[in-house]
Design a protein that fits this description.
The structure holds three protein chains of three kinds.
Chain A: H1 6-18, E1 32-37, H2 47-62, E2 66-71, H3 80-89, E3 94-97, H4 103-112, E4 117-121, E5 130-135, H5 137-151, E6 156-161, H6 166-182, E7 187-192, H7 199-211, E8 216-219, H8 225-233, E9 236-241, E10 252-258, H9 261-272, E11 280-283, E12 290-292, H10 301-316, E13 326-327, E14 333-335, H11 343-347, E15 356-357
Parallel strand pairs in A: 1-2, 1-3, 3-4, 4-5, 5-11, 6-7, 6-8, 7-15, 8-9, 9-10
Antiparallel strand pairs in A: 10-12, 13-14
Chain B: H1 3-32, H2 40-58, H3 61-85, H4 90-109, H5 132-138, H6 142-160, H7 162-172, H8 174-180, H9 184-210, H10 222-232, H11 237-259, H12 267-289
Helix pairs in contact in B: 1-5, 1-6, 1-9, 1-10, 1-11, 2-3, 2-4, 2-9, 2-10, 3-4, 3-9, 6-7, 6-11, 7-8, 10-11, 11-12
Chain C: E1 2-7, H1 13-37, H2 42-55, H3 57-82, H4 90-107, H5 116-142, H6 146-166, H7 200-218, H8 220-230, H9 232-237, H10 242-268, H11 279-289, H12 294-318, H13 322-344, E2 345-350, H14 353-357
Antiparallel strand pairs in C: 1-2
The chains are: A alpha/beta, B mainly alpha, C mainly alpha.
Chain lengths: 359, 307, 358
């Protein structure tokens, strides 16, 4: 920073207050310090990579007004607490915790630093200085599910999951429901590999799904490994979290991209103009948090149009993949015709829809 | 249950097993010479990033693998100098080596994330691998064949060559070997370097064939499984091969059970099964043999010719 | 003129303390050079990595929090080390200890009382000890190497943890996420001891250190442990039962790991998938660095904790990548291990024979 003495600052501030001020103060004291804690390495080309991309977009958009910091490989245990504390003590006023497992730690440190604002990704507990934010990834699944429904010749599609948490359950359900809208008899085979990142196991699981008849495979895990196998085998797949077409140019039909930049920029701006308050964000295609990558040339025109229609529907708010009638695996009707599932129901969902074959 | 189905499942098993088999084979030689190197995971990662990076820069995957072997061997030399010439504790040094390897590979790899690797063509021409039988015999990557050849070569070397006999003598009774005039320390250096080179190749298997890309810590703990496998095998090459494929089959079975919708037991029981069975088998073998697989008598002890 | 390594008759006391310090300083100097070479402010980076955790009193809390479980597990392991019994699977016993304590918490969710916390600690220790009894039994009955069996059981314990928190013990108010309910007020030890900011685990570590020192140096049991390790034949001849030692060594280290697990559970306030932190493995290094002596283990635990905390500080302040911090931790370990050389050997400059004659 510059060598301002307090007197200089007071003089400058007095001068600045005399200037006509439009929106933001023309003279900002120090840049807003924003910090991020990441679960994995920024080089994972997956979850953390996408968040870091958002951070870089924030830096680009707000330039001198912000100064960002990040810490990667922060474990989801008690060791996150000293890291969060350090970041708060170092003057970071806005801190993003980008994984569910930081929930308790964020809340604890938030109590100690009431004037620092925290944002917890994919969490559900808030406080006056803690916001939660999430992305409606399942909207993207509805798009890929539609494409899968059209492109699958065997009528069996695959889904590589990580853990049985609501986000993944929502994902496979949305994927299946959208595919069933195209082909009511379609089946989804689901494998949970109990990890977010294990390329070798992801490959083996994809091979298993393919051997059991799946010819379009979606993944909820982080690496491009499943796609690479799909390319080898000559079947199709989707990218996860980022455009992965360069790993599998023939197999990669499209991808669901996690776009965190807009949220980070909006929240930093809210800090700068003082309008930040504790809320719960759950944004999707409409707000730009979920983006669909360009379609592979292998996707026929009519399928591209069908997919675009879904995107359009979400943009306008006229489409919701979770609109009844929806049945669970036992055949019971969980959502009656015409009714849509509420956000609260979706956030805690633990059952799969009919057509999902799971262990 | 058609033939094609079984063959595809077998191909999955082979894919999962190969890197573990490679790493374990290298470590087998090291431990036979009386040294325990717990840094396998670290050496594998160094090999993985080196193979990927060099193969990428030179546009030749074979140079990449060669570089991976050299990198693995070089990394193991840190361990060797500390343990053999400076007499440090092998367990602690090996653990430190793992931490070192993770850190070094991540550091080098920061410039290579998000890159797609070059295709690493199978050594046999395509027309041989058209039908299912052809595929399972001829369709694999070079690593698979290398791993099989290697484990047989190691087994033969240890039991049928003079050099192998000397290596085993060094591991069983280093003082006697020294008295006869064999260069114990030099032999152990060679063994450790060999183990490092093979671990490097095993790592390259991950980053160049299984999932052609680099991502931090992509070996996901396979190095530790390889270490367990060496003990499980009773330090015998034949049992090592069988044990490695046993692990591979169990891991694959777990996936098939899940994908087919069978929830006979919660998935975690399936995941724990290889390890429970490993312990049970070991108990069975040990009860029969009297000692759990006859570890080399000098395993883990520093060689101090002067007392 | 050449340098010769001459073995000392007795381990040098001064060197035991001096060499680790010298080697750390050596790594620090090396660090400044390396960091400067790759574009960071070398001096600042090294300062943050090594000095800040030691002089910044705010950081002592973090160092203590990290060191406590390492010391506790390390103390238990050091008993086994001396008897040449290698409990590589302490991590598994750590996890099972926490699971056992969490089980008590689950059963007593609706209850309150002063007895709950001691019960959790005791059950936690018992759980860890019981889990270590498996490798002990396998070794004494079937001769199975404890290295393999305990390591395999680590993976099994991780799966058990996963099963419990995704199934029977899942928090009903947790939005179906894999984690247990939070521990209630009567199940939690205070986060800090009074105003000091230090975690209760540190107190346990200190007390543990003293108890173990007494056991190792002043009891027949402690002597028998060392005897079995250094001269097994003689020890057996002297009447020490090696089987009993195996059971004792493993169950003690298992119990200590279980205790550490329980204390960490109370720090984290619940179990989740991120719970296995690797303390059990790092503690192996701690126990060996500390030369398997209670005081040494205590210091070694602090040293390793400093490297972890330093790594975090370096990331947040100097923006050194996480990988580099890990790299330096390894270099420090190498240096300290290598410096052991000077404890056991002294360097002598020997003049050549010709010079002497002339």
């Amino acid at each position: 920073m510059g060598n301002f003495t307090r007197r200089d600052f007071v003089k400058a501030a007095a001068a600045a207050s005399a200037l006509p001020i439009l929106g933001r103060p023309a003279f900002a004291a120090d840049p807003l310090k924003v910090a991020f804690i990441f679960l994995g390495p920024v080089g994972d080309y997956g979850w953390t990579w996408a968040h870091n991309k958002g951070r870089l977009e924030l830096e680009k958009a707000l330039g001198d007004e912000v100064k960002t910091t990040y810490v990667e490989n922060v474990k989801e245990d008690a060791s996150a607490v000293p890291i969060l504390r350090d970041l708060a003590r170092q003057g970071n006023k806005l801190i993003f915790a980008t994984s569910f497992g930081y929930m308790d730690q964020v809340l604890e440190v938030a109590k100690e630093f009431p004037d620092v604002k925290f944002e917890h990704c994919t969490g559900f507990k808030r406080a006056p200085n803690v916001t939660t934010y999430n992305s409606r990834f399942h909207e993207g699944r509805a798009v890929t599910g539609t494409i899968a429904g059209h492109m699958s010749k065997s009528g069996v599609i695959g889904y590589l999951g990580s853990f049985k948490i609501p986000e993944v359950v929502m994902g496979v359900n949305a994927f299946t429901l959208a595919a069933q809208a195209v082909n009511p008899k379609i089946q989804t085979k689901l494998v949970m590999i109990d990890s977010w990142f294990d390329p070798a196991k992801e490959t083996a699981a994809t091979q298993t799904l393919a051997n059991l008849g799946c010819d379009v495979i979606a993944t909820h895990t982080d690496s491009p490994a499943p796609l690479q196998f799909c390319q080898q085998k000559g079947i199709f797949g989707f990218g996860q979290g980022a455009d992965m077409s360069k790993f599998a140019p023939k197999a990669h039909l499209t991808a669901i991209e996690d776009i965190w930049g807009p949220h980070y920029i909006a929240r930093a701006k809210a800090m700068l103009d003082g309008s930040w308050k504790s809320e719960d964000f759950w944004e999707g295609i409409k707000e730009g948090d979920v983006k669909i990558s360009p379609y592979n040339a292998a996707v026929p025109k009519n399928v591209q149009e069908a997919a675009d229609k879904i995107i359009d529907g979400y943009m306008k708010g006229t489409y919701d993949v979770f609109k009844g009638p929806i049945f669970d695996q036992s055949g019971a009707e969980k959502v009656p015709a015409g009714k849509a599932m509420s956000l609260g129901e979706l956030a805690t969902i633990d059952w799969y829809v009919k057509g999902v074959q799971s262990a | 249950m058609t033939l094609t189905f079984l063959i595809d499942a077998l191909i999955t098993v082979i894919g999962i097993t190969t890197p573990i088999l490679l790493a374990a084979s290298g470590e087998l030689v090291v431990e036979k010479s009386g040294v325990i190197n717990l840094g396998v995971e670290g050496m594998m990662l160094v090999g993985a990033i080196t193979g990927f990076a060099v193969g990428f820069e030179f546009s030749d995957p074979w140079i990449g693998v060669g570089a991976a072997a050299v990198a693995g061997a070089a990394t193991s030399m840190i361990f060797a100098v500390l343990v053999l010439s400076l007499g440090t504790n092998q367990v602690a040094t090996g653990l430190a080596l793992t931490i070192f390897g993770i850190g070094l590979s991540s550091l080098i790899g920061t410039n290579y994330t998000g890159f797609a690797a070059l295709p690493f063509d199978p050594p046999f021409p395509d027309y041989l691998a058209q039908d299912p039988i052809g595929r399972v015999i001829f369709g694999h990557s070079a690593f698979v064949y290398f791993a099989l050849i290697l484990v047989f070569a190691i087994g033969w070397f240890l039991s049928h060559t003079r050099a192998g006999l000397v290596l085993r003598a060094v591991g069983e009774n280093d003082f006697s070997a020294h008295s006869i005039g064999y260069p114990v320390i030099a032999i152990r250096y060679a063994a450790i370097a060999f183990g490092g080179a093979v671990a490097g190749i095993a790592g390259a298997n991950f980053s160049m064939v299984i999932t052609p890309m680099w991502a931090e810590q992509m070996t996901a703990g396979r190095g530790w499984i390889a270490l367990a496998l060496v003990v499980f095998s009773g330090w015998r090459a034949g049992r090592l091969l069988a044990g490695a494929y046993f692990f591979g089959v169990l891991m694959t079975l777990e996936l098939y059970a899940k994908a087919s919708g069978y929830a006979i037991m919660p998935s975690q029981f399936w995941a724990a099964m290889p390890y429970i069975i490993a312990v049970a088998v070991l108990a069975f073998i040990s009860a029969r043999d009297g000692r759990s697989g006859k570890e080399p008598a000098c395993l883990g002890k520093p060689f101090l010719p002067n007392g | 003129m050449r340098l010769v390594l001459e073995k000392r008759l007795e381990q040098s006391r001064t060197m035991v303390v001096l060499t680790p310090i010298l080697s750390v300083i050596g790594v620090m100097i090396l660090g400044v050079i390396i960091f400067d070479a790759i574009g960071y402010d070398g001096f600042d980076a090294v300062w943050q990595l090594f000095i800040t955790p030691v002089i910044d009193t705010y950081k002592w809390r973090d160092v203590a929090t990290k060191a406590a479980p390492l010391i506790l597990i390390g103390l238990g392991l050091s008993i086994g080390n001396r008897a040449k019994i290698w409990n590589i699977g302490a991590e598994g016993q750590y996890i099972v200890g926490a699971i056992s304590a969490a089980g008590v918490a689950y059963a007593t969710q609706e209850m309150s009382g002063f007895w709950i916390i001691p019960l959790m600690l005791i059950i936690g220790m018992a759980g860890g000890a019981a889990y270590a009894a498996i490798p002990a039994g396998l070794k004494t009955r079937y001769g199975v190497s404890e290295v393999l069996s305990s390591l395999m059981l680590v993976y099994v314990s991780v799966q058990l943890l996963s099963y419990l928190i995704t199934g029977p013990w899942k928090d009903p108010n947790g939005m179906n996420f894999p984690q247990t309910a939070q521990l209630t007020a009567s199940q939690l030890l205070p986060r800090e001891l009074g105003e000091t900011g230090l975690p209760p685990g540190l107190l346990f570590a200190l007390v543990g250190m003293i108890i173990f020192a007494i056991i190792v140096d002043r009891t027949v049991f402690g002597f028998s442990i060392r005897a079995i390790g250094e001269a097994p034949q003689a020890a057996r001849f002297g009447g020490f039962n090696s089987n009993r030692i195996v059971w004792a060594a493993l169950m003690i280290s298992g119990g200590m790991a279980g205790l550490a697990g329980t204390l960490e559970l109370m720090q984290l306030t619940r179990l989740n998938l991120g719970y296995p932190s690797g303390y059990g493995f790092t503690a192996i290094i701690v126990s060996l660095l500390g030369r398997s002596h209670p005081f040494g283990v205590f210091v070694a635990g602090i040293v390793l904790a400093v490297t972890y905390v330093g790594g975090q500080v370096a990331q947040t302040v100097v923006h050194v990548p996480n990988a580099t911090a890990g790299l330096f931790q390894a270099l420090i370990l190498f240096a300290i291990l290598a410096s052991d050389l000077f404890v056991r050997y002294r360097i002598k400059i020997k003049s050549s024979v010709a010079e002497v004659r002339a």
